[in-house]
Amino acid sequence: MSFIAAVLILNLDTADAFIAFANLLNKPCQRGIFTLYSKSFPLDLACRVWDVFCRDGEEFLFRTALGVLRLYQDVLTAMDFIHMAQFLTRLPDLIPPEQLFQHIAAVHMTSRNRKWAQVLQTLTEQKKSGARLSGAEALS
C-alpha cells in the first residue's frame, strides 16, 4: 500500500493525497487490486490506470484485469499455472499502453443485461440487508 501512497504524494499535495489514500482504504475488497496494479505495472502505466479509475470507478479496475488477460492471452495459454501466476505478478516492463487500453475499452461488463454499477449496487444492498437481518436475529 505504501507504493500507492507514494504515487498519490507524487501527484497531489499532501492533504489531498492523505484524503485520497484514506478513501481508498475504506474499500477493503479492493485493497488487493490496488496493490496488484501498483506493483505489476510500470509506474507510468500504473498512474494512467489510477487516473482513469478515479474518473470511472471500480468497474475500470475489473475491466483492466480483463484487458491484461486479453492482451497476453496467447502467452498465458501456453503456460502452466505457476508460470502464469509469476508472469501476472510482474508483467513485462514494456507493456504497450495503447494496446492495453484498446483491450480494456473492448471489455463490456454486463450481467443479465445490467451494467456493472447496477450489479454492484444490488450486491451491496443485499449485503446490508443481510447484516441487518443478522443483527435482528441476534436481538431476538
From TrEMBL:
Endpoints of the signal sequence: 1-17
GO cellular component: cytoplasmic vesicle; vacuole
GO molecular function term, any single one: small GTPase binding
UniProt record, GO biological process: vesicle-mediated transport
InterPro entries in alphabetical order: Rab-GAP-TBC_dom, Rab-GAP_TBC_sf, Rab_GAP_TBC_domain
Keywords assigned: Signal
Signal among keywords: yes
Transmembrane segments: none
Pfam families (alphabetical): RabGAP-TBC (PF00566)
Protein name: Rab-GAP TBC domain-containing protein
